[in-house]
Amino acid sequence: MSTETSPEPDPAPEADARRCGWIAIVGRPNVGKSTLLNALVGQKVSITSNKAQTTRHRIHGIRTVGSTQFVFIDTPGFQTRHAAALNRTLNRTVQGVLADVDLVLFVVEAGRFGLDDAKVLSLLAAAGADAPPVVLVANKLDAVHRRAELAPWLKGMQERHPFAEYVPLSARRDADVQRLLGILEPYLPQQDWFYDEDALTDRSERFLASEIVREKLFRLTGDELPYTSTVVIDSFQEEGELRRIAASIVVERDAHKGMVIGDRGAMLKRIGTEARQELERLTGGKVFLELWVKVRSGWADDEEHLRSYGYE
């Protein structure tokens, strides 16, 4: 009979040796902010798609490494082209985040800087002397075919803003993500952690369920369905490892309802199947998911509807 014992787990670092801070991830739509957040956390906590404004809420992603806890805030892509109430609400979310963080990650596509990027950068510059440090994250480095062309581009970016760091990377490469975490760590204040060591997000399963359905909706309908569609959870019941979820997909027109339902209900069934499968992977249990499609004309430009659907 063996007398060997398992080694004791490493004790949690003392509170006075810990670092913890808020890090905002900002940028124009479709630069890969949510993909970067998921990579930094090490698990999917924010949905992704090619449709602009996929992220609509302030989402906290949490990663604890050694004595440091990083609390990342994924923000909606700052919208400059549409003035609907939905977009005004999303932009207020971005601006509100910037006042309360220790560090900002300004995400752009490596080698590109357009008018929409410049408008987001102007928000950071407007914060003045009290603004937190800003790290330039040049994402999608894997899409740059000639790396030598990045040097003059980076030089031009240095002239645009006094960035604290310049980090070209691909959010899909783990080595790049680990390097970024190491760069960010010294910028966080020495203080106790805000969350438990194993926490990944501050959002509930109910919220994540609505987001996952919305992700499948956008991914499967592509550009046919306008971005002014949302998902509302009508009921969420937990019975041990079983979740019973009823949700409504809200669109603005009857024609959009037809797109979501599809021929003989095929599209709606596919959205539900893919969402249910991902929810089962997320929760580790069985999920029963019912989906309905409702038409609410003009909801995206109605402040009362926005509040009732959970927009800040």
TrEMBL record:
Q: Which InterPro entries match?
A: G_ERA_dom, GTP-bd, GTPase_Era-like, KH_dom-like_a/b, KH_dom_type_2, KH_sf_prok-type, P-loop_NTPase, Small_GTP-bd
Q: Where is the signal peptide?
A: none
Q: Where does GTP bind?
A: 27-34, 74-78, 139-142
* Ranges where the record places region G2: 53-57
Which biological processes are named by the entry's GO terms? ribosomal small subunit assembly
Q: Where is this region: G4?
A: 139-142
Protein location: Cytoplasm; Cell membrane
- Note down the stretches annotated as region G3: 74-77
Limits of the KH type-2 domain:
213-297
Does Nuclease appear among the keywords?
Answer: no
| Main localization, broad class | cytoplasm
Question: Which residue intervals make up region (G5)?
Answer: 169-171
Task: Name the UniProt key words of this record, in alphabetical order.
Answer: Cell membrane, Cytoplasm, GTP-binding, Membrane, Nucleotide-binding, Ribosome biogenesis, RNA-binding, rRNA-binding
Region G1: which residues? 27-34
Please provide, alphabetically and separated by semicolons, the GO molecular function terms listed in this UniProt record: GTP binding; GTPase activity; ribosomal small subunit binding; small ribosomal subunit rRNA binding
One GO cellular component this record assigns the protein to is: cytosol
Q: What does this protein do?
A: An essential GTPase that binds both GDP and GTP, with rapid nucleotide exchange. Plays a role in 16S rRNA processing and 30S ribosomal subunit biogenesis and possibly also in cell cycle regulation and energy metabolism.
Q: Which HAMAP family match?
A: GTPase_Era
- Subunit composition and interactions: Monomer.
This chain's protein is named GTPase Era
Species whose genome carries this gene: Piscinibacter sakaiensis (Ideonella sakaiensis)
**Gene field:** era
